Amino acid sequence: MNNILKYPIVHPLKKSGQKVAKKKPRPSDLKSWAKRVKQNTKSYYGKNSPGDYMLRVKIGGRRKFVGLMTNDLSEAARRAQQFHWDAKSSGWDAAMKRLLPAPPKKDIESLTLEEYFNHIESLSLIDPHTLFEYRAKCRTLFARCLGITGKGSDKWPGAEGRTPWQKRIESIRLSQLTPELISTTMCRYLESRGKSDDPLAKLRAKHTINALVRGARSVFSRRRIIPYVKIQLPAVLPFDGVRLFKEDDAEFRFVKEIEPQVLIDFALEELAGRKPIMFAIFLLCLGAGLRRNEADKLRWMDVRAVADGAIVEVARTAYQKGKSKASLRKVRIPQSFYNLLHNLRGNAADGDFVLPSNSAPRANVTYRHYRCDSQFKALCGWLKSKGLVHDTKALHTLRKLFGDAICNSQGIYSACKALGHQKVSTTERHYAALPNVDPVPFHINAQ
Q: Which residues form the Tyr recombinase domain (predicted)?
């Protein structure tokens, strides 16, 4: 018994003749690579139908999937083998360049405005809403430069998509838009408006053309955009050396046309009971200094009561991302404003919008969509009937009145924060009216 081993000895099985005759494919054999490549199906990238073949490979401590850009198995095996050799000998970057050759260079002279815009959009350097506005300003300015006009259904067909006028503008070659052409157009526009009898016409024309150029040239910024562009551009860009007309800060100074308390009395008398949505917009814009889109997308959960009033929070949501980081803020409103606003709530839930509307919000659109657009326009008409006739944006004047009141009571810095501005200079230039200064202490004795 002692001579019996505890564990029996297991002899390895001999291979059959078929297994011995079958050779393992060598790495140089395309059959081995044909087994390694996999199609880009749902198990990989979520596609329901088979796509191009891809190779999963690990070389030099890097493991990744490499797309082979073909759905032919034999060609995919050949490309996988070639990529493996190139990566082993020359490294990943050289292998990728050989596998993915650079697209043929497009002639600089034939690069159109549409192609440039599409490339900028693909880079995601500018917020889609902002890029939409910049693109519109470019079209308006460049149409003026080349004398391209449009009206009626040619410019506004009443449907989604790009209009014939937009297509005609964006088919312009980038090489046609020279700095000299833009500067000449600016001067010509200013001269045409300066012939009017209205002394302020030339001043408004200067602000208009400067705003167009300021927005359009942002898409061609050599500091923020051009370093990331991957297509070949003309050596001279459209706005190289183009200067804006000189503007004085006094030209933008907010002029108070009516006292806020007078507007409040009118609103209580004419809007509170008859037009509750317009009255709610009035309270939000004057009492909290909200922008149009901020008021349009405000939810009841963002309006909270506190000890001595309430807080209105401008938060990031699916429909309201904020104009900038500074615009996401909390604003205190008076108790009287909160009581009036809360009386309009009714049975609305916390997730409901403060301003009711039959129009649903739209999340994935590049243009500015307002649920209560008709109510905003109606309130603008009402404000103009009360004396706000000189300001072209009557609804925005309520926000300026709010900023001016905060500036006078708490200072320019508090007004900047309450308005959601990134720079104090913006608040000082556009939202603060001239302060009431006491008269000089001189006296004249009447004879």
A: 280-433
